[in-house]
Design goal:
Layout (H helix, E strand, L loop, with lengths): L2 E4 L6 E4 L24 H4 L5 E5 L2 E5 L14 E3 L2 E3 L5 E6 L13 H19 L6 E8 L12 E7 L4 H17 L3 H12 L3 E4 L3 E4 L10 E5 L6 H4 L4 H18 L5 E6 L3 E2 L2 E2 L7 H4 L3 E6 L6 H6 L2 E3 L3 H10 L3
């Protein structure tokens, strides 16, 4: 019988379709890239203005930005509606000068440089008083929203409002803290370490596991064991270890799931004037913890999910974790 499972962070229910459970081998939709190096815009340097460079990683302004610092954040009210210019920043992180498609194929040292770049750019944007949140994320493959260019890159968005997905997590973490006087993420990590059945890998400072109420098959979270609300500060000194964890997971996806499209997002705390937003969220330094969501794109969201907010996951997270543990990356 299918199970309803409740996400302990955002209180969202998902359906784990145990009777329709698909074996890992049934998820085959490999990414194919057709752009050779001699026509790749990232190899040829055909991007907008470069804003930063760090040990083989380049950061450029997006050529088609969703957010632009040339605007000004000045909301206007029109009856029920509110509108303002799309102020902020939209940057592309070109992760290597080599024409390599998947971050999984980068050396650990280069992935470390990418994470260090994310942290540096986050610190930079946090100084902008109008920016409330910075998201670093990656799209790999057409199914994940990427263009068909075989050069690994990711993106950074600095935005003047708090995204609803992040806000839901922050509210859920605060609600738990107010009731239990403990960090939800700490309890989450400790339970996964005790039960082990959803743990994919663990290192001295990180644990990677398939969430109990996974939305997608093989969805995996990377959570630091050391408490910190802010990615840019919390990852300092641990970039190499995090890079190793990410490379192992991506290689497991590539090998075991036949090189699927995937997204990852880094969720950190919002800020106000370069500091945690302690006005709206006075306990955020105690109750929230930065983390990474890694999501292979193996299924599509259909009418039921869009109409109800339920997600249907066609493989139990415990089965997915066991499979990933056994993949030799």
């Amino acid at each position: 019988m299918p199970e309803l499972r409740k996400d302990p962070v955002v209180s969202r229910w998902v359906i784990i379709a145990t009777e329709r459970a698909r074996r890992p081998a049934a998820f085959v939709d490999p990414v194919e890239h057709t752009t050779p190096a001699d026509t790749c815009p990232f190899c040829k340097g055909e991007q907008a203005e470069q804003v930063y460079a760090y040990d083989g990683v380049r950061v450029v302004k997006s050529g088609t930005p969703f957010f632009n610092s040339a605007a000004s954040f000045a909301p206007r009210v029109h009856g029920l509606y509110e509108v303002c210019p799309s102020y902020g920043a939209h940057e592309v992180v070109i992760e290597t000068p080599q024409h390599i498609a998947n971050m999984a194929d980068l050396p650990v040292e280069q992935i470390k440089n990418v994470f260090a770049t994310y942290a540096l750019r986050m610190r930079h944007h946090q100084q902008d008083a109008a920016v409330k949140y910075v998201l670093a994320y990656k799209n790999y493959g057409l199914a994940a929203g990427s263009r068909d260019i075989g050069h690994t890159r990711s993106q950074i968005m600095a935005v003047p409002v708090l995204p609803i997905r992040v806000k839901d997590k922050i509210i859920g973490a605060k609600r738990y803290f107010d009731f239990h006087e403990r960090c939800l993420f700490e309890d989450l990590v400790q339970q996964e370490r005790r039960e082990r059945e959803r743990v994919v890998l663990e290192t001295d400072n990180f644990i990677a596991f398939t969430p109990f109420a996974a939305r997608f098959p093989f969805e995996t979270w990377i959570v630091p064991k050391r408490h910190h609300w802010d990615f840019a500060q919390g990852v300092a000194g641990l970039e190499g270890e995090l890079a190793m964890v990410m490379k192992i997971l991506l290689l497991k996806f590539k090998t075991g799931l036949h090189d699927p499209a995937y997204n990852f997002v880094i969720h950190s705390a919002p800020f106000e004037g370069g500091k945690p937003d302690s006005v709206k969220y006075p306990t955020i330094c105690e109750d929230y913890r930065w983390h990474i969501e890694l999501m292979p794109r193996l299924t599509r969201v259909a009418g039921f999910e869009r109409g109800t907010g339920f997600y249907i996951c066609p493989i139990p997270p415990e089965m997915a974790a066991k499979f990933l543990r056994e993949v030799q990356a």
